[in-house]
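Async update (no meeting this week)

Hi team, since we skipped the sync, here's where things stand on the single-chain job. The sequence we agreed to prioritize is pasted below, unchanged from the tracker. I ran it this morning and attached the output directly underneath so nobody has to dig for it. Comments welcome in thread, and please keep replies under the output.
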Amino acid sequence: MMLKKYFKAYSGIMDSFKLKLLLALTFSQFCYQEAAISHPHGNSKEAEINHYVTKPPSEFAVALNNVGNFNAIESRIFTCLKPYQNDILSPIDGVSEFSIAFHIISGAEGTIGVSESGVFNSEGNIGSDGAKLSCSGSYETTTGIYKDTILINSSLVETSFQLIDPTLLTFNLLSAKTLDKSPVLSPVEFMPKKDSKTMDVNDGISVVFNRSIFRADGKIELVNVESGVVEEFDVKDSKKVTVDGNKLVLKPEKALVSDKNYEVRIPVEALKDSDGNGYSGLNNYQFKTQIDVAFLLVGYDNTTLYETVESFEPSAKKTMSFLNSLSATQIASYKTYRLSNINISGAYAKSLGHLEVVEAALEGWGVDELSNYFRDKIGNPDALQNPTAQQREVLQDLRQWLLDNQKDAEGWAISALGMQHYSDWVNDKVLKFSRPEYFLLDNLKFPAEFAPQEHKVISFILSNQGKTNFNAAASNFNGLGGAQWSIKTADGLKVTHDQDFFYSDHSDPFGDSAPDLLLNINTRVDVHESIHTWGHAGHDRDPLMVGYSTMSQAGGDADLQFRRDPPTYPIYNRVYLMGWLPESVITTDASLIRDAADPIVLGQKYLLKVGRFKYQELYDGQWFQYSVPSLLNQLNTCKTTSIVTAPTATNPKYDAGNLCKPILRDKSCGIKSEIFGLPETMWDFRDCEFIDIDAELSRELFQRYLEDFDGEYNSAINFDALVMEQADVSLRSSSN
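Output:
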């Protein structure tokens, strides 16, 4: 094959790319039947198929254990790539690594096309170096550029291609650079990426080099570009600096500050390679941390309460003040954007939402797990099940009324059938599951200057000058495969990456509410929903109606709730769910407890442990008590239940070893078997030994336990961790 540079500008269209990939997945599974007879990694059990597993020759010191491979006989390139959007990994239908085969269209012009694709290394096989097989290729959705490292005969070539036809998935070569053998020690990969603006303040910092590295002598500096050196890392300090093969990891003692520019400086000779050659140093590695919160002002009914970003400022400042206090000052930065008003009426959006849910109920709530939002209503006792002939007739009448009137179902409720059935069952078993906000925000475009990944939390602040109110909820752009949301970039591309957001309607449903009360209510709702997006997926259960947690479903004493400034949030959640407070705030000595209503001083004690899964804390002079049964419940489930990977209407539990294995003493324990010849996998942990969750719980373990699916919400986990209880004085007196 002859490679020739060929430049041709084109704007990549990712939706087409995704569609082709997903369609190709169906057919590519047949290709996996090929035997992995001989391949560069040797052991057929430790590799996927020979075409897609290629170890780079040892004379090239690259930070990859698997590269693309040009097969001259088939005239195809076999490789693996990851899809990115604005430098952020952007899975397609939950898949982040794809095996891709390109056929050569024109060697002279450097034109290639996608011939097959599939899920790469679905079994998690390892390479000869003991590490998981790596993906050498990447595809950037915003530019349509595919980059890869490809083995061509005995040469290792770094390439880049430009998408030129999103329908046929053809690419033209932009550049090809043959790598030198045995290059000098140099960085090849950064996390976060160089000059990126998307770093989560809690993420680590790592640099991958082209060969194995070893500690030498020196201090690495982490610098805030505005204020100077933040922290020094002695390369010999293994607690703050980790060296693993060719990867350097820095562990800052404190979380970074949001919306700040940082630089990492590695001095000359601080590291060396296996031959004793010193590293020449690094002083051009910069990145920026995410802004904490983005407020996007969205008016509908072609009206708004916030004509300018300045008019929203009192609400933004109050919300951020609450979040700053609850997070022990970790949440501080925000930016407000004004979007164009939406012409669609609130009544029409609600009618579309009601129409959707009525049709879903008539169809049995659907079975398509990728696209049907209502799939979890199958078997749900609160949802209509197996409607009778009369119930179907009522819903058909409602459906037709919605089509004819383009208004929400409250108008139908005063009809002859509506008065008989609306309050009796239609509203509680059907309509309450509607999501009209999908239609209100349908095809909403971000402003040109707005990049969603540069913000940790995104909020749509809805408002109109009427009495329509859509309440509030948290979601994810990629929820249910991205099928439910049609929010777009300024260029018209659908936003489908995994990023949490919430919407909150600030409209006055009564029309005459006192401004101060409305402001207080709205900011508390915004705090509640933003905490969802920060990591608390559920609500603290409060059966005693204690006006304590801002996440409580019951809500507690309304007067008490709205008097509190800021709103309350359990210390337990701030330690284990959010990581805002260290574990050092926990004690078993009641005499050490400080009032959490006071400004948080991280060195003080705020959470009193009074028993197994039982805690108390002092807030505003009042003691509150709660238990955490969900951890024990999950442990008991792992000990006593065989769990399948895929949830069904009759068996909603699933694990695949991901929830139970993190709390096993022996991670290899568990019996895996096939179920009736189906692709589901059964795990049986009943003979395994588990850790003592209560005694050995740490934030790291807790987070790994709850976030085993890359942080995605999993209904198998009880996120309603806390149950409020009546505080028992005797437990405090005996706690120490």
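Quick observations from my side:
Residues 1-49, 555-562, 649-654, 707-718 have pLDDT under 50 and may be disordered.
The CA atoms of residues 129 and 296 lie 47 Å apart.
Reply here if anything looks off.
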